Each structure stands twice: as C-alpha cells, then as structure tokens.
Amino acid sequence: MMRYIAGRLVETVVALAVMSFLIYGLIGLMPGDPIDIMVQADPNLTSADAARLKALYGLDKPLVERYFNWLEAALQGDFGYSRVHNAPVLEVLLPRLGNSLLLMGLSFVLALLVALPIGIYSALRPYGARDYAINFVALAGISIPVFWFALMLIYLFAVEWKLLPAGGMRSLGVDATGMEGLLDRAKYLVLPVLALSAASIGGFTRFVRASTMETMRHDYIRTARAKGLSERRVVLKHGLSNAMIPVVTIIALSFGSLFSGALITETMFSYLGMGKLIYDSILGNDYNLALISLLFATLITLIANLAADVCYAWLDPRISYSGGSEP
Amino acid sequence: MSSMTRLAARRFVRHRAALASGVLLVLMALAAGAAPLVEMLLGVDGNEVDLLARFGAAGPGHPLGTDELGRDVLVRLLFGGQVSLIVALITAFSAALIGAVIGLSAGYYGGWIDTLLMRLTDGVIALPLLPLLIILAAVDMSKIPFLDGLDDSAASSLYRIVLIITLVGWTTVARLVRGAALSLRTREYVLAARSMGASGLRIMTVHILPNVMSPIIVATTLSVGNIILFESVLSFLGLGIQPPIASWGNMLNNAQELIYEAPALAFYPGMAIFLTVIAFNFLGDGLQDALDPKATGHERGDS
Amino acid sequence: MTALLEAQGLSKHFAIRGVGLFAKQIGTLRAVDEVSLTIEAGRCLALVGESGCGKTTLARCLALLHRPSAGCIRFDGEMVYGDNLNKYKAIRRDIQMVFQDPYGALNPRMTVAAIIAEPLNIHSVGNRRERAERVVELMESVGLSPSLADRYPHEFSGGQRQRIGIARALALRPRLIIADEPVSALDVSVQSQVLNLMLDLQDDLGLSYLFISHDLAVVEHMADTVAVMYLGRIVELAPRDDLFASPAHPYTQALLRSIPRPGGGKRTPGALLGGEVPNPLDPPSGCPFHPRCPRAADICREARPALETVAGDHLAACHFKEAGSP
To answer: Which of B10, B15, B18, C306 is spaced 20 to 30 A from C214 at the CA atom?
Structure first.
C-alpha cells in the first residue's frame, strides 16, 4: 500500500512538471510579450531599447532555456511579479485562493447534502414517478449553462425581487469581523454557491443513484434480506457502505470541473476568487500570475485525484495489488 | 444484426424522455436549417443593424423582438442554432475519432504504449478544462508555424473553436475504447485472427472497433451536450465564435450589462442552449439503455 | 513417419507483478515447463489434462500466439524463433487453430462468409470471386449449406458454429490444426458429429492434429498418440492403445479409472484421485504429483523424474513407472 502511494506521489510530481512546461509554453504563445506591451504603452521606447530590454530579461532565449530559468527560480520560492497588481504573485494569489476554496467548499457541501439523500431515495424506489422527476431535475442541473443560470439568478434575485446583491464580496462599510460581517458575507455568497452547485448536485445525484442501485442488485443484499434483516438495516449496513466507495472517487474527481465552474461563477458575480484571477490574468496578459495560478489549480486537482485513488484503494478490500501480466 | 438492432430500437422507444428528446432535436435541427426561410418570410435580414429599432418588443415582424443592435432575435436565434449545432457535432465527431484511435492503440498494444497514452489521458483529464480552453483560445495563432493561416476573422474562429475543444475532449472516448479493447483482445476471435497472421491494424479496425461501437455512440452523444456548453461559455466570454457570426453563446455576450434593460435577450439564447443540452443528455441516456442495458440502473425485471 | 512439428524444452513463464510504478515481480507462473513433443504428419496427437495444467498455453505457443520463454519449436525441420512472431506469416498458413468456445471464437459482427474468408483476405489469396468460391467449397466440406453464408454467428447453434470455425481453419489448406477442446462446449449428441467430421477431414486432406481435451473418451476416439500433462509438464507420452491398455504414470491411471463407463457396475479397484491440483504459483518440490500420488516415496519429494522410456514408444515421468492395468 505504501509502495502504491509512493508510486502515485511520484507520478503526481512528474505530471505537475510536465504540466508546468506545457502551460509555460502555452502562455508564451499568447499575443505579445511583456516588452511589447511596454513598448506599446510607452512611445518613447525604440526598437533598439526593446531588444536590449528583451536581452536583459532573457526573453530572447529559446523556450526550453527560459523554462528552466523559471523553474529554478520557482523551486527556490521566487514566483515572480504580477504585472497588473504590482505585487509578488503569491501575495495576490493566496487570499484569492482562500476565497475560492470557500466558495467551492460550500458548493461542494451543499451538493453532497442534497445529492446523497435524494440519490439514495431515488435508488431505493426506482422507476417510479418520483424517480423520474428526480432524474429529470438532476439532468437539468448538469445541462444548464452555468453562466446563464447565474444570469437568471441575478435577474430574479437582484434585479426583479431585489433580495440579494448582484455581485461582489461584501458591502462597504460593514465590519468584516463579527456576526454582522459574517451575515453580510453570507448574503453575497448565496447566489454564487447556488449557481456553482447546480451541476454538482445533478452529477452527484445521478451517480449516487446508479452506484446504490448497482450495489443493491448484488447477491449479498439478497442474502441479507433472506436472513430476515429489516430493510433499513439491509440498506444502511450492507448497501450504503459499499455503494459509497465509487462515490468517494467521483467526488474527488469532480474537482477539475468544479474549478471550471468556479471560474465562470466568480467572473459573473465579481467574486474575487482564483477563478476570476485566472481569467483576468490570462486576458490581461499578466503572464506570471496566469502561470502560477493555473499551476496551483492543476496541483490542487492532481492532489484531489491522488486522494481519490488512495481512498479507493483503502476502502475497497476487493482490489488486490498483485495481478498477472499476460492473459 | 438486424434483430439486435430491432431489439435496441424497441428498448429505446420505451424510454419516453429519450424519444421525446430525439424528436425535439430533429425539430430544432429543422428549424435551424430553415433559418434562411424564416428570414425570407419575415422579410428581415438577421445581420442588418437598425439602431432605430433597438430593444423592440415582440410583435408582428419580430416574433421575439429585436436585440441591442436592432437585429431580429428569432432569426439570429435560428442561425445561431445552425452554428452551435454544427460546430458541436463536428467537434464531437473529431474528438471521438481521436479518442478511438488512442484508446484502440493503448488497449490493443498494451505495454509501454498503453502506459504512455493513459498517463497522457489522465493528465488531460486532471486539468481544469475551462482555464485551459481560455488559454488555448487566447493563443496568438501567428506564433505557431503551421497554424498562422488562422487569423482573427469570424470564420477562423469557427475552426479554432473546433480545434481547441477537440484537443481536450477526446479523453472520455479514449478511456472507454481502451477498456473495451483490453477486454476484447483476449477474446478467442481476436486470437484466431492473430493466429492467422492478421496485422494489429486489421485486428483493431475489423475485430475490436465494430464491437465497441455502441459505447462510442453513447459517449459521443453525451459529449455533444458538454461541447455545446463549452462553446457557449467561450463565445460568451468573447473567446469563441466571433460576431458577426451568431452563436447562442455570443448572443449572450452583452446580456449581463443589458440585464436591466432587456432581460428577455438573456433568456432566449440561454434557454435554447439549455433545451438542446438536456435533450442530448436524455438522448444519450436512452441510447445507453437501448444499447447496453446493464450499464445504467434502468434494467427492469430485476429483484 | 516424418515429424511435422517438434517442440523441445519448451517453457512459458508468466511474471506476476504487483501494481504501481515500482511494483516488483512477486511470483512466476510456470504455465508450460520444459515440454518436448513431436507431431507426426497425418497423425493426431492428443494432449490430455485437467483444467489449469497448461495445455491451452502450450497450444497457443505452438500456434505462435505466445512467445516461448525457453526452448524451441521446429516446423518441417525449420527452427521457428520465439522472438519476432510476425516474421512467420508464411508458417501461419500451415498451422491453424480451432477454439473451444463456439460463442467466442467468431466475431459477432461479421457474416459467416466474411469469417471464413478472412484468412484468405489476410494472405491475399485469389481474387474476390475465387475467395467466394472457396468459401462455398469450405462450407460444404464441413456440412453447412452455403446459402447460410450471409448470416451472423448468433443465428447458428453451437455445433454449427464450431463447424464454421473448422471451415475457417481449413481455408488456407493448413497442414496442422491445433484444436483446443473443440467439442467440450457442445452437447454430447453433437460432439460425435463434429469429431467424425474432423476424422473425415483428416483422411481427405491429410491433416495433422494437435487435439486438446480433458475428456478421455473423446481422446480415445480421436488420437493416434496421447500426451498427458500435469502442472505444465508432460508426465506420460504413449501411442493411444498402449496408454489406455497399460498406463505407466499414476496420474494417468487415476484419470483412466475416473472415466464414467455406461452400464454402471463396479469400479476397478484402486484409489481414485484425492486432493486438489496444487497452486501453479507454488508447485510442490520434486515430482509435482507426489502430494496426491499413492506410490509417493522420499525420492519423489526430492528429485524431479525425467520423461523416460517404459517400453518402445511409451514414455513416462515417474520414479516408479510401471505399465500397470488401469
């Protein structure tokens, strides 16, 4: 088991390294480089100056060399400067990361709280009218465009009924700490969390339902019933614990899409999280920031995947770690 | 083969939501295809900007009103449907093709090829897709030697969006096909073919691929919905299909600012996206039940 | 008698690994362990043994589907190397296989005509018309009506599907057919039809067979020579009549005693086979059969017996081999 974890850790590090090179290269392909931007902003800079500056910053070197220079600095903790915010990247990134994790976390918890009971209920009374209704709603959840859903929510709750704010993080003049501040922040979180959870609720519900139904079909459930256990015990003790195993993996694997959803949601609600940061920095040509924040997002997703694999291996005693090679 | 298809068709028809979705999609496709006809009937031009008629209410001549530049909403909606649907279908097909090739190679050859391809696949799956797509969309084409034919025009934006979504969309089919190939390669008819001296290519295309078609069809159908969602998000952000070519996504581009003045403008394109995606998802569900009833929880007659 | 196919010291080992990037090998499965045998032209060599004894693996090695781990194979006197099996496309025309599972051996998405014609396609034999004619010829030779050529496998019964498999195997006019339990999955009433078909084809076409089975009654019907396998090794090799009349190895004797004979009656005295087949990942020391053998002695635990002559062509691998009555 330890061996497995060690192997997966190594794979994660390798994956991250490869991703970093890829993203570095991609960002390098974006229009203009920092010096060009400076030249555009400052008409006094001649092309000779531009060339000199490029040489100074090492921008005229080939891609691989620039990448390794960057890597060397990064491994020593120097992640560069954000051009737009005029501050070290980490300083800009970390608070935003916290905001995003709050948003994503709340949405995640909400999705679980809704999807688990509903999915299980649906699985235990399959093919009925309620099951179909639940399936329809779940499917709607994963089909709805998040940005449109956000728009509709804004329209209904902010424009039409004027119940909740249309965007932002907190009201001006409200004390950030204390009960009042907390409630205020909560007000700003309701719509974004709702918008972000739609897809997760839909996806999780369907998966929990499928997984539970699959488990209930197994013979050991029939055996438990034949033994005379009450239906409730059958479900709780035997069915659920086994059904939850794949659910754990699916949950961890949905991190990647959660980030994508968060990007849109934060942008729509002007919520200062990492998703919006990634978006703004890419479009604003703030290369360092874009690069690091993307890598952070990738790293978190990779860690979530690793955790999922380990959990799965730990929970499912049926997986044996010795298998043959040829058929 | 016909009896198996007939059985599948019967199972599909029992799934009423899937059937309804199929019908809905056909109707939508027809409506979108009829866009020029509608244009003619209404006597309007979808691209004609008429600043005097901005935000017109629904009425004769403009069944759904006009947008912020005075263009007829219904006509734009239908043309946008053409674009969104065609782009999505082409992308889904390309992604499935790439996925099938990768999955077949990985599953059939096994060994280091499998490990390499699967690591690659896992890597792409692990990435947060939207940020990656945004970067890809923002990339300056002139910096890539063989792609600098793609400029910033609206027509190019169509090719670009197909390209970038295909680039990240092949993973589901790849995994699926790989799994199937791994299990099928120990089947006796594959062994028989090998013992006859069949080449790997022949075995993959003649023996394995036809037997994997059902899950591929299901996965591809289900992927269309996701592709439409991604295209519309990118177009909404201004990174996808560029105006004047209408797509449902870019029709919503200004919707947020205009939400106070003309909320209806935000409603129709989004609703269109929503309905189309949910229809494809139901269709995919139904196809899955029909083609492989054991996979979902829909098998009846079970204890 | 000319030797068509010879195997010498053939072994096939599978490495068992753990999972993950740094997993190491945790065991070896010796599916086939130093097997030597000869198949004569125009004759049928039967390979007998219980499930898991390695006969299928051996068959696949001889059909060039597996790369042997050791030893060599000679076909028609020429060495067939285990390294790059793709070089031997030509030899593949001479060796064809018939499989056990009539439901798995045929691609469900291909018509019968396509299935039978496939070997012809692969080796580019003839043109379209000639191939179609050959398909008709083959179907008739196995007793199937050519009008069924456009049907799909699921429309046929098990026995018919096996005939299709045989027709496919005959397409390239092979000299050796390796039949891996070809009738084991069929109903008993159908079995004899297929077996007789195979015997007729052998006479008509001068075929050689490697016939694998766990059913001794079938073997008695088909074989000229019989090889008995246990845990990847050949423990007895004899002409059919010799084997059935006076088996030398205790395993063979026990197998023969366990054949149900119609008409009931007393079983011949002698112990039936006790115990279970040991785990191939962890075979017993010395002679692999010693834990279950009524004759086992100390030497059996220590030294592995070699395949040695009992009498004439009759070979057995036992320290106490004796041609006894079954």
So the answer is: C306
With H, G, I as helix, E, B as strand and everything else as coil, classify residue C282. Answer: coil
- Average pLDDT (C39-54) is 87
C70 DSSP β-pair partners? C11
| Separation of alpha carbons B112 and B96, rounded Å | 23
- Which of A276, A110, A103, A266 lies closest to A186 in space, CA to CA? A103
Is residue A318 within 8 angstroms of chain C, CB to CB? no
The DSSP symbol for B292 reads -
Query: Assign residue A107 a region: left if phi > 0, alpha if psi is -120 to 50, beta otherwise?
Result: alpha
B188 touches chain C (CB under 8 A): yes
Residue B301: pLDDT band (50, 70, 90) is very low
Q: How far apart are CA C225 and CA C241, in angstroms?
A: 8
pLDDT score at C254: 84
Compute the nearest-CA separation of A87 from chain B (Å). Answer: 22
Q: What residues of B are in contact with residue A19 (Cβ under 8 Å)?
A: 123, 127
CA distance A5 to B28: 50
Q: Do residues C232 and C31 lie in contact, with contact meaning Cβ atoms separated by under 8 Å?
A: yes
- The pLDDT value recorded for residue B18 is 82
Structure tokens at A269: 């609600």
Cross-chain residue pair B211–C108, CB shorter than 8 Å: yes
- Specify whether the CB–CB gap between C216 and C255 falls below 8 A: yes
C-beta neighbour count of B119 within 10 angstroms: 14
Q: What's the start-to-end Cα distance of chain A, in Å?
A: 24
- The answer to whether A139 touches B281, Cβ cutoff 8 Å, is yes
Question: Is the confidence metric ipTM above 0.90 for this complex?
Answer: no
Q: What is the pLDDT of residues A14-56, one digit of tens each?
A: 888 888 888 888 887 777 666 666 666 666 666 677 677 667 6
Q: Provide CB contacts within 8 A for C16, sequence distance 6+.
A: A322, A323, A324, A325, C25, C26, C27, C28, C29, C281
Is residue C251 a contact partner of residue C289, using CB atoms and an 8 Å limit?
A: yes
CB atoms within 10 A of CB A26: 18
* Contact yes or no for B196 and C172 at CB 8 A: yes
* Rg of the Cα atoms in chain A: 25
* Chains touching chain B, criterion 3+ CB pairs below 8 Å: A, C
CA pair distance A304, A251, nearest whole angstrom: 9
pLDDT of residue B303: 30
Q: Tell me the sheet residues that pair with C30.
A: C13
SS3 A83: coil
Report the largest interatomic distance among the alpha carbons of chain C, rounded to a whole angstrom.
67
The tokens describing A76, both together, are 């020593």
Using the Cβ of B278 and the Cβ atoms of chain A, whether some distance falls under 8 Å is answered with yes
Q: Are strands C44-48 and C225-230 parallel, antiparallel or unpaired?
A: parallel
Q: Which amino acid appears at position B280 of this protein?
A: F
The answer, yes or no, to whether residue B145 has pLDDT greater than 70, is: no
Distance of CA C77 to the CA centre of its chain: 21
Residue C149 reports pLDDT greater than 70? yes
Give yes or no for a cis peptide into B244 (omega within 30° of 0).
yes
**Pairing state between β A87-88 and A81-82:** antiparallel
C308-311 β-sheet, strand order: C95-98, C176-180, C208-213, C44-48, C225-230, C233-239, C314-316, C308-311
